[in-house]
Amino acid sequence: MLTKILVLGNYRQTLTVIRSLTKAGYHVIVGREDKRVFTQYSRYTAEVWPHPDIEKSATDFIAALFKFLADRRDISFIFPVGESDMLCLMHCMDRLPATIGVIMPDAEVITTCLDKMRSYELAARLDIPQPPFRKIYDYPALVASAEEIGYPCVIKPNNSLTAFFDKKALIVHDAVDLVRSMPVWPEGNEFVVLQRYTAGYRHNCHFVADRGKLLAYFEQRVLRTDRRDGTGYGVDGLSFAPSPVLKTYCQTLTTALDYSGAGCTQFIVDDQTGAVNFLEINPRLDAGCAIPYYCGYDFPRMAVEYTAYRRGTTTTPPTNFSGYVAGRRGGWLWGDINGWLRAMEIGNLTFTESLGWFKQITLTFFSSDFDLTWSWQDPLPTCYWFASLTTTYLIRFAEKFRKKRRQLKTNRLD
Question: Max Cα separation, the chain?
Fold first, then answer.
């Protein structure tokens, strides 16, 4: 009988998790919070479990989860892919059946990693380089501190689950840009983190660690994101030869945290100056884990195998026998197109900038070795995404057209 794994959270990396684990011989059950989700159409999804949306009611989700587990005693693992899924499980770990392994780091590690101020303070104690940062509680202090730290600077929420103008962070170039980009204090944020801006490429350092010791390490450079300022999700990435300095910093962090499980540390690397700066550490699989996966570093499988090892089910930790392949390029066509359309819709692009972005989409598509979600063997999930994207923008276009016609009609009557 195949070992059954319940996968929670529908993100682009969830597709890599499903494909990886099914090919590794597991029976994958996918949680579904909506009537339809793209992962349910994957040929590698064995079952689908409909459940309440965690974002709307964690209490309802937990109740449904315990009922499901009581009915399905054949489930051996739960694999929470996203941060909200991890936090929800973290708060009810003591009530889960002892027979079930949860594939995520310890609670204290998760709490530290998801708290930007705590992770920055940890990096400072470990002498890991990073730009100057400050904890800001109100707007006047933000304006004053931005002048002191110097422009350009970055403003970000303390955790990625807090609403923040539909962005991961704001890059502001001067006082006028600060007021324009952040006209009011972001609702739901007790404080924000202000940090001096540093230029360079984002390096995502994927790893699996056992009580702080690195078992596997893979480095990826993000060439472009779905936001013009580089703050969004990667849409063009490159497998990168391990940088000794980044690997050392990653090992320093995992040792200090006594980290056990899979994760991803991010740094900003400036090729011109050679400067390296810590960005963040995520206690989960990176959204771009398809890149190491296609290069032979199967982090979803290793994450499951490590959990089994830590629980005593197996006697040896996971190993990776694949050779390290640097220079392979992975694009995300859907994310690139979605970012381009969104930027045009809100008026963030000039005509020339729009053409430039479209040219980059085309170049990435033809120069990539693989796409982060598309697979000829498993096409339906990505097809579903594109169909949904097309429908969404057709509806928006039709609504704008109707509004324009009504306005023209009103003007004629006047």
Answer: 81
Does residue 191 sit in the same domain as residue 208? no
Domain membership of residue 143 (yes or no) is yes
Within a domain: residue 363? Answer: no
Which is nearest to 142 in space by CA: 129, 120, 130, 157? 157
- For residues 205 and 176, give the distance between their C-alpha atoms in angstroms, rounded to a whole number: 35
Tokens read off for 378: 């498993």
Q: 58-94 pLDDT, tens per residue?
A: 999 999 999 999 999 999 999 999 999 999 999 999 9
Q: Would residue 111 count as lying in a domain?
A: no
What does the pLDDT look like over 176-213, one tens digit per residue? 999 999 999 999 999 999 999 999 999 999 999 999 99
State the Cα–Cα distance between residues 67 and 139, nearest whole angstrom: 46
Q: Which domain holds residue 188?
A: 132-196
CA–CA gap between residue 121 and residue 377 (Å, rounded): 45
Asked if the structure places residue 349 within a domain, the reply is no
- Examine the domain organization and report whether 207 and 297 are in the same domain: yes
CB distance 14 to 81 below 8 Å = yes
Nearest to 99 by CA among 3, 2, 24: 3
Q: How far apart are the C-alpha atoms of 149 and 321, rounded to whole Å?
A: 46
